[in-house]
Amino acid sequence: MALDLNTGDYKIFREAFKKFIDTEIKPHYQLWEEEGLVPRELWLKSGGQGFLCPWAEEKYGGSGADFGYSVIIAQELARAGTHVMFPLHSDIVVPYIASFGNPEQKNRWLPGCVSGELLAAVAMTEPDAGSDLAAIKTTAVRDGGCYVLNGAKTFISGGEQCDIVIVACKTDPKAAPPHRGISLLVVENGTPGFNKGRRLHKMGLKSQDTVELFFEDCRVPATNLLGLENQGFSCLMQKLQQERLVAAVAAQGLAEKMLKEALAYTSTRSIFGKPVSKFQHNAFKLVEMATEIEMGGVFLERLVEEHMEGKNVVKRVSMAKFRITETANRVAYDCLQLYGGYGYIEEYPICRDYRDIRVQTIYAGASEVMKSIIARDLGI
C-alpha cells in the first residue's frame, strides 16, 4: 500500500502541527524576519510538543516516529511560508549524532536536542570550499586527550544560536585522496577558541540566523569525535540523501503554496474587464505550473516511501533535489509576474517567497552538483 501522510496518526499529527504554526509561528514570523532570529522560546515550545526529532527513541525523549512525521513538518512549514529551521536541526544535523554517536554521546546530547534545550548546527562549508568537501582546510591535530581545531566555516545556518556544532575537519591533511582524512568533531558552545562571527545578511530566509564560525587553537575533547577518525566523509555521504530529500520536500511545499495563492489572486484580480486568470496565456502558465508541481509531488512521495524502506535512492533524490528546486524557482518567477506590480510589494507573500526559494537550488548541493552525481550514475 502506498504511503499516505494524510490519514490516521499522520493526519492527527499534521493538524496539531498546523495549529502550532498558526498560533506560535505565523503571528510573530514577520518580526523574526526583521530581527533576523527565531527566539529560543519557540524551540522549547516545539520540543515540548514533540515537534523536534520525532524519530528519536523514547529513552532520549522522542516518540520513535518514522520519517513521515519529519516530512509533514517540512511540508507544513513550507506551505505556511514560515521557514523555521526545525528540519535542519531535526532531520539533517541531529541524525549524525543518532547514527554515529556512541552511547555516552547520545545520552549527553540527544535529550537536549529533542527538548529544544540544545540547538545543533553542522559546519561543512568554508570560504574556499563549498560543494567540494574534500577541499576543506580546517584541521584538527591530536594532542593528548584533545584535538586542536583551527579553521573557519561560513554560511552556517543556525550557527549564531547553536549549542553544539558538528565540524567537518581534516585529521589527516596528507591523506590521498584528500577525503580520506576528514573527521567529524562535535564542538560545544563556550569552548575556548570557538568564536561565532558576524551574522550574514542574506537575500531571503532572513529569520534563519546564518553566520561565520572561527576555531583558533580550539581544544576539543577526543571524546567528542563522532564516528571513527578519518571516516567523516563516509558519514557525510550517508546522510546527504536525507538532507537533499528534505530540501526537495520544502521546495515542493513552497511551490504548492505559491501556486495556490496565485490561483486565488488571479481569479479575483481583473484587467481589461476580466479576471487575470481568464487570459489564455495566463491560464496556460497556471496549467503548466500545476502540472509540473503535480508530477514533482508524485515523484517525491515515492522517494519518501523508498527512503523510509531503507533503499539507496541517491540518484533519484539528486534528480528530485535538482528538478523540484528548479521548478519551484520558475513557479516563483511566473507567479510574481501574474501579480504585476503588487508582486513586488512586501505586503504580498509572493515577494518574500520569491526571495526565499532562490537558495534552494544552491544549498544541500547545487543543481550543477546534482547533475554531476546523476551523470556519474548514468556512466557519462
Automatic annotation (TrEMBL):
Domain Acyl-CoA dehydrogenase/oxidase C-terminal: 230-378
Acyl-CoA dehydrogenase/oxidase N-terminal domain boundaries: 9-117
GO biological process, one term: fatty acid beta-oxidation using acyl-CoA dehydrogenase
Presence of keyword Flavoprotein: yes
GO function terms (MF aspect): acyl-CoA dehydrogenase activity; flavin adenine dinucleotide binding
The protein's annotated pathway: Siderophore biosynthesis; mycobactin biosynthesis
Keywords assigned by UniProt, alphabetized: FAD, Flavoprotein, Oxidoreductase
Function noted in UniProt: Catalyzes the dehydrogenation at the alpha-beta position of ACP-bound acyl chains. This results in the introduction of a double bond in the lipidic chain, which is further transferred to the epsilon-amino group of lysine residue in the mycobactin core by MbtK.
Family to which this protein belongs: Belongs to the acyl-CoA dehydrogenase family.
Record's protein name: Acyl-[acyl-carrier-protein] dehydrogenase MbtN
